[in-house]
Design goal:
With 84 residues, this protein is α+β, with helices and mostly antiparallel strands. It is 17% helix and 19% strand. The protein has one domain.
């Protein structure tokens, strides 16, 4: 069994998709786009968990591990319902 990170390659992400990278040590947040990862970093063949394992914080002196999360556009919804 594995999580979605071990089943999804970076090249499989839809065009315009973003990953949110949060430092586990200092809390710094960065956003990684599919285009940046595939074109500039040549990481299209890597799984998301492999990218997460290689990612480090860029804040001066931190170098903490990053946690990646998928960003979803316009897919939030509030609870609609109630008690009768």
């Amino acid at each position: 069994m594995g999580s979605w990170k071990s089943k999804l390659r970076c090249g499989d992400l839809p065009e315009g998709a973003k990953l949110e990278a949060v430092c586990r040590r200092c809390g710094q947040v960065r956003y990684l786009t599919r285009g940046y990862l595939v074109d500039e970093r040549a990481a299209g063949h890597l799984y998301i968990d492999e990218i997460e394992a290689r990612s480090r914080c860029r804040v001066l002196g931190c170098k903490g591990r990053m946690r990646l999360a998928m960003m979803h556009r316009n897919q939030t919804s509030g609870f609609v319902g109630g008690m009768a």
